[in-house]
Design goal:
The protein is of the alpha/beta class. It folds into 2 domains: 141 residues, no CATH class; 216 residues, TIM Barrel (Alpha-Beta Barrel). The chain is 30% helix and 28% strand. The chain contains 9 helices and 17 strands. Strands 9, 10, 11, 12, 13, 14, 15, 16 and 17 form a 9-stranded parallel beta sheet that branches. Strands 1-8-5-4 form a 4-stranded mixed beta sheet, with no helix packed on it. A two-stranded antiparallel ribbon has the order 2-3. Helix 3 links the parallel strand 9 and strand 10. The longest helix is centred in the C-terminal third of the chain and has 18 residues. It starts with a strand and ends in a 7-residue tail after the last strand.
């Protein structure tokens, strides 16, 4: 699937002097759209794109030449620039940066819109101007599949804070409730455009396992389960979904899952089944209740060594190519995050895009 992102830029006043001028009879003569006067301002827009997209677009010397199109019926002169865009570019993450760069360049009156198209999507950016040149940049992005990476067990500490900040891609952080750093992780995620879901402790088959605070058990009454879930997300204002922490017993219990998923639906959240055990009833109950749900495809690090995690990441890419998307779960561990920082850029080799898990709905 190819997605085409189009930025329409109407240049600032004074940009296009000489592009059109009245003749002796008072009529406007159609001179070429790009003039020596306009080139520097076009270059300024290019510099903003380079600043915003960085390595997600090729160096400017590899861009195709600008193309002067025929004047539009309104008398505007479109100038087209086509630029390949890496599959790793994720516009909801890049959009605020683009806006800030435009404003820093003195371009304050602009609109950016997003439209679907037969090839994927179209992004249109228009800067208000009294002039008549339109600089249209087509960012052409091929996406063969999408990948979501969930990082479980966040909230125990901030020891891996710098590793998270070095991953400039849209991770999904699954935060355990009511821990010393749960609220801090939620803030960190929001500040760095990561998605947040609740990593909700659910009853395990092994009764000796310590679930931690905020656990829900198979025999927890519906009203109590609702109260616990409310408390679990109280310190996590950016939560958009839930996945299970443990839950090998809970996720195979139809009555318990119905209570939980009905409450999740009432809160407008989605559910990701971590699949800690085969034979869960999530899909059946979620369809009955009408709540959005998906299931984990790959565990990245249930063996905590570099070779295994790297192999699992390769398996994740293969799954995404074959099925169109795939969900991986890793953990808030130093080794896992270091390997992700190294391996996520390789998704572009197969035209795969990393997205928040909510995008897969």
């Amino acid at each position: 699937m190819k997605s085409r992102y189009i930025l329409l830029v109407l240049l600032m006043p004074g940009v296009i002097a000489g592009c059109a001028a009245p003749g002796p009879d008072g009529l406007i003569s159609q001179t070429p759209a790009i003039s020596p006067v306009s080139q520097p301002s076009l270059n300024t827009v290019d510099e903003i794109l380079i600043e915003t997209f960085g390595p997600l677009i090729p160096p400017v010397e590899e861009w195709s030449p600008r193309e002067e199109l025929s004047p539009a019926p309104t008398g505007t002169f479109p100038i087209l620039q086509t630029i390949p865009l890496s599959s790793l570019a994720y516009f909801p993450r890049l959009l605020p940066r683009l806006q800030l760069s435009l404003e820093a360049a003195g371009l304050f009156e602009f609109e950016i819109a997003r439209h679907s198209s037969p090839g994927g999507e179209v992004w249109e950016m228009t800067i208000e101007s009294d002039e008549s040149v339109i600089y249209r940049v087509e960012l052409v992005q091929a996406v063969a599949g999408r990948v979501a990476v969930i990082i479980d067990d966040c909230g125990n500490s901030l020891r891996n804070r710098d590793l998270f900040l070095n991953i400039d891609y849209p991770l999904t952080l699954a935060v355990l409730p009511r821990l010393p750093y749960s609220a801090a992780v939620d803030r960190l995620a929001s500040e760095n455009e990561f998605e947040v879901i609740l990593h909700c402790p659910l009853e395990a088959i092994n009764p000796d396992l310590v679930l931690g605070p905020g656990a829900i058990y198979c025999d927890t009454p519906a009203e109590e389960a609702a109260r616990i879930l409310d408390e679990n997300i109280r310190e996590l204002p950016h939560v958009v979904g839930v996945n299970n922490h443990m839950g090998s017993s809970f996720t195979t219990d139809t009555a318990a899952m119905r209570i939980l998923l009905e409450e999740i639906k009432r809160k407008g959240l989605f559910f990701i089944d971590s699949l800690t055990v085969p034979g869960t009833v999530t899909s059946v109950v979620a369809e009955e209740v009408g709540v959005e749900y998906l299931s984990r495809d790959i565990f990245l690090d249930h063996e905590n060594n570099e070779e295994f995690i790297t192999q699992q990441f390769e398996a994740l890419k293969k799954k995404a190519i074959e099925g169109g998307f795939a969900i991986a779960i890793g953990h808030d561990r130093t080794l896992t995050l270091k390997i992700l920082g190294r391996e996520i850029p390789t998704l572009a080799d197969d035209n795969l895009q990393l997205v928040p898990v909510s995008d897969l709905f």
